[in-house]
Amino acid sequence: MRSGTRQRLAGVTCGLLTLSVAQTALASDQYLELEPPKTLTGRGYGYNSISREYVLRQCVQFGAGLLDGSGASGDEFKFSSIVSNSQLADEMDLAVNTKFSASMGLVSANASSKVDFFQSTQTNFNTHTILAKYHNVEPMKFVAGDINLKPEYLAMVGTPAFRQQCGDYIVIGEQKGRWFFGTVQLSVRDTVTESKLAASGVIGVEYATMNAEVGISTINKLKQASNTQDLEIHVTSSGTSSASLSVEQFLQQVQAFPGQNGAKQTFKLMAVPYEDIVANWPVNNPLAPLTSEQKLTKLAEAAWGLTALIGDSDFMIQNAKLFALGTTPARRDARVAYIKSRRAWYQGQLDDMRNRARDCDVDWAGKPACESLYNTWKDFEDFVVAEYDQFPIRYVSECYAGRDAGESIQSKLKTALLTTQGQFSNTKGDREMGGGPVSFSANVTFKSDFTGGDPLDTRKLLSTLKIRMEESKADHTTFETTLKTPVFDLAAPSPGETLAQCSYRGSGVKAEYVTIDAEAVCGPMKAINKSAYEKCLEGFKDVKYHGMLSGKTGEDPRTETFNKNSRGVLTSMKCTVDSNAGNDTPMIGCQSIDLRSVQLDLVNRQDVVADGWVAPKKIDVKKLTPSIKPTMQRSNALRKLITPKSAVAAKASRCGEGLVTVAGQCLPKLKKAR
């Protein structure tokens, strides 16, 4: 409600019929929105801004008449994805002084259930939070007519006793209604769940931040992807209190609450300094302190931001296995050490801020540290984006889990083999195998299907299968083929998971290479031509495969299964090697293939990027210069989530008698203006 820096105006007027533009801007600072306490309060009661406590007595006399003001009112129901305490405070419409007190750890023990709820809901990037919000509130109702100090308190004005017994503000407005706030929070500590959330569209596949559009289906997806006991559900509302709830009970309560009947309770209070509203207040005797609401908000956002950075740092340190820190233990250890050092720095900055800013909401102008702190932290969004740019990316994909792709690869190869019948190339001799025997050999290798660009972007694993059939007599008729077949696609994993962050490492599989027995092939040359023998050995030096298979048929073969001389991942194949025709070409081909387990060898591509990270050389609160440039995509995503949404004040319709337009709202006229 208040904005800008309040300033004293020369002169005091007892009657204020109209407000100039300048006076209106200043007057908006004199209305103080408050959250209701658990104790008795209402119109006419006092509030002590120094102790941040309500006074349980009415030190004034006023009539029973009321004026209907304007402001936030009516019916609203929505779900929101929450990533910061600042965002949560805005969604809950918490008063600015409450935001500040909460951020500095100064909330009164008598704070309302709404504030208790807010305090217990800690949010940051590593906790997925969904807020269900409903409220139906009336316009603020203000005291009508003159307000006068009771005689017994008039004599105390100007003494410490008055503030102690009456406070320095008087509550002049009360807003009633019904409301419901509930959160479902999930702190994910395993990559399997995070991958399920990404596959279902709850979070982004790159940076694991929750998508903006959320609702009942999102909450159900959180439940389906996680263990129910990992979901923390927290509720507060007017007139009800909830024990531990299941997701089903929570959603039932959310949907039922708007249609239920219930007593309306105090939702918000409005107070002003005694000297600005009390008709018989002595001239030139100000009591209420001065403050600056916009600047308080900035400090509150900075304090919450540091708290979130501390929380996220602790999570990373305790769950380093969930983050891309590099591909070697040394790199990962260095990154964790950096996070620990930054965590200590955040804590030191937060402690210093809370120590120096404790009374900024009491007397901004009288505390030089307040303006200094504001100047330091006013560009907090830039600072926090720069800090998070240095944080490691969270794993969304299960890149390092054991993943046997043997059956999938075998199925793809079998499908490809079925197309080869009649398609083998006749590379030697005539087209007739001549009744055998037939020598058979096959080999298979795997590699990522890289065709240029960034190898980390390669999505497909490519298999190269070579098959050779040779007649063992006559003119050695030979049929051959080479199949290059995509056998695994990282863009199309099993349902319910994502491998978007994964890339193939090395050959893409963990299978050992096998080689040809070069000595058996080249050995006979040794006694005849040593040079040819050595050249033969050299030729086989780099010839290696992931699987090899060989065999020899008897006389008059047709369709044979080869499985006796298998090495590596290739165990058997069933192929037609001859026919009873003068031209065997149409019948030559293979029908099936069997493989051993084939484990994929994957790396999280963010770990590869993290290998290039080095700690920034220049670090201060206003600017952090990274040694490597973060991606603009991530920076923009962070900034969008962190930057507070600009609040748009409700436009007041024509104000009724006794009210004036201040900051877009209809509020009571003040007797005095600063």
Automatic annotation (TrEMBL):
Q: What is this protein called?
A: Uncharacterized protein
Record key words, sorted:
Signal
The scientific name of the source species is: Nannocystis punicea
Please list which residues make up the signal peptide: 1-27
Organism's domain of life? Bacteria
